[in-house]
Specification:
The complex is a heterodimer of chains A (432) and B (307). In chain A, 30% of the residues lie in helices and 23% in strands. Chain A has helices at residues 43-46, 85-94, 113-126, 149-155, 170-179, 194-197, 206-211, 218-235, 247-258, 295-307, 322-325, 342-351, 357-372, and strands at 3-12, 17-26, 29-35, 54-57, 62-65, 67-72, 97-102, 130-135, 159-161, 187-189, 202-203, 215-216, 239-241, 263-267, 312-313, 387-397, 416-426, 429-431. In chain B, α2 (58-69) links the parallel β1 (47-52) and β2. In chain B, the strands form 2 sheets. In chain B, strands 7-6-5-8-9 form a 5-stranded parallel sheet. A 4-stranded parallel sheet of chain B has the order 2-1-3-4, with helices on both faces. Chain B starts with 15 loop residues before the first helix and ends with a helix. The chains are: A alpha/beta (432), B alpha/beta (307). Chain A binds chain B through residues 205-206, 209-214, 281-282, 323, 326-331, and chain B through 12, 89-91, 109, 111-114, 116-117, 131-135, 169, 172, 195, 197-198, 200-201.
Chain lengths: 432, 307
């Protein structure tokens, strides 16, 4: 596909671009960007060979490198009733994402290269955007023996994680952080001390006592963030901390970065936007792991995003079937279907002055690519034509009935958001 | 006056006036229970279903008798033989029971919030007979009824609740009720079993039992669940009893006419010694009798609410 996107406001932190201009795509790759300057004509006028290119008028719109979600659950293989690679990537594209990284807690677990291969093939056949598998750290995510990381890496895994089932053995985690250095891939840690969080279904505090629900103290996360930082220092490995939810974790990561530990971190829209109060009325759509916390945690996460302690905004898109959520709070599965609301909610950070739009693009495109070593997240010439075009003025209400994802489980139902992806281009293919 | 909701889900949601209405109505039913013929035709032709998803003897029996005294048709839904073990969802179970024509659903469930979940899906009245570690509202109402009957008041009363507050839905409902009426509530127990968060609902926390019992009007002992032993909450029942068991010496710290309560079932020799349990100061069996009157009042008032 050859394409000219003209008159858009182009933001590409990887090249320090933030201004009006035109973007040329040839053979599904970025050909060039020409920024509008006084006394100089734009690409369309300058280049006669653009005749015959499809033209998208992006006047009044923002043109960004395609967003990358470092943390999703596409649920396939094994849980196709919750989501499939097809529906999940359709939802991703609607949410402005051109690449998603899918966690290994499928059935069977992505702990060997056949499952990795299945996911990659399925994504090529049916996926609407690029899918990067994340392999399991340990066989069966049991936390005991290392999975064949090297073979899975060769097959296409871009990182390793036992997401949802933290590696409780410090020794196994040390080995994982050491061994993964051979392939220069990060270990993504779901930080939760299972002994401390046992039986917990929401944040621990007055509200959990009031609702009679068992709590997970913030310290269950922080104890493991502290441990994993120590182990990353010992093993000299690359640690990426998933879905940071507490003020204490932000402090620990900030301090570790200052000491030069190779640690990066992500948080999710729900952790910096809403609190444990959403659980009131036993709302299972607000049940998520780690649990929604308090206002002081929300504030600390925003501060961490602002000062760069938190590198990435991920969705932790965790679709579930309606029937699974429509049950006893302590029996319902954890997770939020978040891939279609992530950008709209994250743009509130820009509106409230926490981040500039360019910083938001760093956290949702550039940084995930850098952390995973992907040739993505940039509009530099030669890169895949992965582009997200945003209309920052478009206002809309969140209606889970209109989600493309099979998972309608969101605590944001009825929220009014401003700013929506109007066109998502994946490797030159235009989704409008 | 009427109740404001079709359901009784918890004490949290009730106003003082609603609680007083239940207690006053229960007095009337207590008179009925003293008669030779203890049955009234108040709710004849209506149906109550008791859905107990957790083992229970006294609460279930109490509800069943209360229902029968009001001439309700009563069905006990036995969970172990039901479709629940076949994987039916709680909402489907409730809808099926409603389709059979039940006007009242009395629910006990190990998960907190289940009566709330069910109540939003059905139009029958839901009565919470204990949900998880959340609330047990009829127990708190019968406790308040008993305290008021014995001491003549709730306001200004000093009530000590001793034991496993953390896992006790009774203690929580009692706290909500008593603080609404201006009673002073003291929670006493080991730090592992008394959540400090409760202080923000206006109660005081003590770990020293003698200190906590000083000048109390009511001493409410909670059952120590044997299954907590070995799970790290306390080292042994022997040690527990030594520090937080109610003995005659400890009870002497309370007011001379203080009453002793227990929601049952008791572990004699652990949280309470027999000398006290069987003494005139113990109102434990009267709590059981009052429970019947209070549950009749709740059913009766909820029926009126829907007319």
């Amino acid at each position: 596909m050859n394409l000219l996107i003209k008159n858009g406001h182009i933001i590409d932190p990887s090249q320090g671009i933030d201004g009006k201009g035109d973007l040329v795509i040839e053979n599904n790759r970025i050909k060039e960007i020409s920024l509008a300057q006084k006394g100089r004509r734009n690409a369309e006028g300058k280049l006669s060979w653009l005749q015959g290119f499809r033209t998208i008028d992006a006047s009044g719109l923002h043109v960004l490198p395609g967003l990358i979600d470092i943390h999703t659950h596409m649920r396939e293989p094994g849980f196709e009733y919750k989501e499939t690679i097809k529906t999940g990537t359709m939802a991703a594209v609607k949410g402005g994402f051109t690449s998603v990284c899918t966690m290994p807690n499928t059935n069977p677990v992505n702990d060997n290269s056949s499952v990795t291969d299945f996911i990659i093939r399925k994504a090529i056949q049916e996926g609407e955007c690029t899918v990067y598998p994340i392999g399991a750290i340990t066989k069966g995510q049991r936390g005991e023996e290392l999975a064949e990381m090297g073979i899975m890496y060769a097959e296409g895994c871009v990182a390793f994680s036992d997401d949802g089932r933290p590696v409780m053995s410090s020794l196994v985690m040390r080995r994982a952080l050491e061994y993964s250095r051979a392939f220069n891939v990060p270990i993504i840690s779901h930080c939760e001390d299972l002994n401390l969080s046992e039986g917990g279904v929401m944040n621990e505090g007055l509200l959990s006592v009031t609702l009679g629900l068992r709590g997970v103290p913030p310290e269950a996360e922080e104890a493991m963030v502290g441990r994993d930082i120590a182990l990353a220092g010992l093993a000299k490995g690359r640690l990426h901390i998933a879905h940071v939810s507490t003020a204490g974790s932000v402090r620990l990561i900030r301090e570790a970065k200052a000491r030069g530990i190779q640690v990066t971190a992500e948080t999710c829209p729900h952790y910096f936007s809403i609190t444990e109060k959403e659980v009131e009325g036993y709302n299972t759509n607000a049940k998520v792991n780690p649990p929604l916390r308090r206002q002081e945690d929300v504030d600390a996460l925003k501060e961490g995003l602002k000062d760069g302690t938190i590198d990435v905004i991920a969705t932790d898109h965790a679709p579930h079937h309606r029937d699974e959520k429509l049950r006893e709070f302590d029996q319902a599965p954890s997770g939020i279907s978040g891939i279609e609301t992530a950008i709209g909610i994250s743009l509130r950070l820009v509106e409230h002055g926490v981040l500039t739009l360019a910083q938001l693009v760093e956290k949702m495109a550039k940084n995930p690519a850098v952390i995973l070593g992907l040739d993505k997240g940039s509009l530099k010439p030669g890169a895949d034509a992965d582009i997200t075009i945003l209309d920052l003025n478009k206002e809309y209400g969140v209606d889970p009935g209109k989600f493309v994802s099979k998972g309608k489980n969101t605590p944001f139902e009825g929220w009014m958001l401003k700013g929506m992806p109007v066109i998502t281009i994946c490797k030159g293919r235009v989704h409008e | 006056m009427k109740l404001s909701s079709k359901d009784l889900l918890g004490i949290k949601d009730l106003s003082k006036d609603e609680i007083m209405l239940v207690l006053d109505t229960a007095s009337g039913f207590k008179d009925v229970l003293r008669r030779d013929i203890k049955k009234v035709p108040a709710l004849r032709g209506k149906t109550a279903v008791n859905l107990f998803f957790e083992p229970s003897t006294r609460t279930k029996t109490s509800f069943e008798l209360a229902e029968k005294r009001l001439s309700l048709d009563v069905v006990n839904f036995a969970v172990t033989t039901s479709s629940v073990v076949k994987g039916e969802s709680i909402i489907d179970t409730a809808l099926n029971v409603q389709a059979l024509g039940a006007e009242f659903m009395v629910i006990r469930h190990p998960s907190s919030g289940v009566p709330h979940l069910v109540s939003t899906h059905i139009h029958a009245s839901v009565i919470n007979a204990g949900d998880g570690i959340n609330e047990h509202p009829t127990q708190a109402l019968l406790d308040a009824f008993t305290m008021k009957e014995k001491t003549g008041r709730l306001e200004g009363l000093i009530v000590a609740i001793v034991g496993d507050v953390l896992h006790s839905r009774v203690a929580k409902s009692d706290c909500y009720l008593l603080t609404k009426f201006g009673a002073e509530v003291r929670l006493i127990g080991p730090p592992t079993l008394v959540p400090l968060e409760m202080q923000s609902v206006g109660v005081r926390v003590f770990h020293d039992m003698e200190e906590g019992l000083r000048d109390t009007d009511v001493v409410m002992m909670l059952r120590i669940q044997m299954e907590r032993q070995g799970r790290g909450f306390f080292p042994s029942t022997l040690e527990y009893a030594r520090y937080w068991g109610l003995t005659t010496e400890r009870l002497s710290m309370a007011k001379k006419d203080a009453i002793v309560m227990h929601p049952g079932p008791m572990n004699r020799g652990v949280e309470i010694v027999s000398e006290i349990a069987d003494s005139p100061r113990s109102v434990i069996l009267e709590q059981v009798t009052n429970g019947l009157a209070v549950r009749m009042a709740v059913l009766y008032l909820l029926a009126g609410m829907k007319e």
